[in-house]
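One-letter codes give the sequence; each number marks local geometry. A record appears below:


***
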Amino acid sequence: MTQAAISSHPTRPPVDYSKKWWVLLAVGLALFLGSVDGSIVNVAVAPLMQSLHADFPTVQWVILSYLLTLTLLLVGMGRLADMMGKKRIFVTGIVVFLAGSILCGLAPNVYWLIGFRVLQAVGAAMLIALGTAILTEAWPPQQRGQVLGLAAGFISLGIVLGPVAGGLILGALSWRWIFYVNIPVGAISLLLALLYLPPMSPQNRRERFDFLGAVVMGGGLLAFTLAMTVGQNAGFTDPLILGLLAASLLMLAIFIVVERRVSYPIMDLSLFRVPAFSLNLFTATLAFVAISGVVLLLPIYLNLALGLDMTRVGLLMAAVPLVMVLLQPISGALSDRLGTRPVSLLGLFFILAGYLTMTTLQLDSSQVGFVWRMLPVSIGMSIFNSPNNSAIMGAVPRTRLGVASGILSMVRTLGQVTGIAALGAFFASRVVHYGSTELDLATPQAILLALHDQFFLVAALILAGIVVSALTWRWEIRTQAGKAPAPLQPMKDGSAVVAPADEPNFHA
């Protein structure tokens, strides 16, 4: 039998897996671009302020405009790809992203730069929303964990190289080159995508895009992300912030009503009735909230409490994504053999142990001691990520891979926004509790004690994820023991949330 997989599932055409490595390279480079672009711009805030004669709050929107646009569009782009074809949207995304990068480099002032960053984020949404879906379809199902681990490695590598590359570029060239550097990598990704991505034609061509659902969901997400970002400065008890949070809840309620009534919803809510989908999304959210809130604050400890210069702080913080680059492909392949649930649960235990270990950090801790304490968290995220993503993508039908990938990416982004905002506010309140009014005037002891409280809080979040994951695993074992999984309720287009006949069941 050739490498082309001949499926017995009636709705799934044969898939040629012989080009899978080229597909991985095309998608991996695109995901690498997205992660590099996020982190490389963060180190250019000061040069942008000086060169464009802009104040800090305005320059912040160079970053926030990208993040907000990305969050708003991820699910919609995934749904659009399910209707129009994943390859078409993905290739278009590369072109839009490259055009946005060129225009960002040519921006005459900060306001044009913010606008071009929105355009760049539109392209990035097409790439990030579809990366997981394309790899899920273009690789054999029994290697899903392995390929998603390799893709996660590209993302982690971008996080590692972004600040380093940004520092080198800003030291030798102008800030404009942090955008121009995207062009050669993006051009290679575009060429590979055109040559090697399979057609991935949509099966439901007659479906209509749910514009009402997209607008309501976008309004709710915009209200929530604005509340999280603006609330860091205004305070979460400010009437404006409370109003935005109330608006986001109202939009959520309206969104649920709309999605239940339209014929072709942008987000089929029946997906969330599948435990392997919804509960793994929940644990992923907790993990993203925890890691984002802690990674934001650890440089403060290293710089203000230990007195290290920012170059050394950057090198120490790179240890986390560097470990993930090395271990995520291994954990993904391991989950293909042992199942996604036990491997991802093991990762959560490592993360919990790591945060509890980090409560032993002191004002005289060595740099080596810091890295050793961070290591269990890095190992845990590496072990958890790929199997958890594999379980999520393995729980949806082929016709919904795009929207599922978009939801997963949106959860990741919202987890980061929430973690940075909510845990950052908690940390600031604990610093005040220990006797300092402002963070830049805080004593090293106040920073250390507030950070310890933060570690205990995120450990509690991870413990909640462990309990949910363990109870779900127990339920799955009981319901699946000695019998095939019960058929799930059909979706509105007639497809069912069930693994195709030629694919293993990834619910456990």
Observations:
- Residues 304 and 444 are 7 Å apart (CA to CA).
- The radius of gyration is 22 Å.
- The mean pLDDT is 78.
- The chain has three domains: 16-199, 210-265, 271-480.
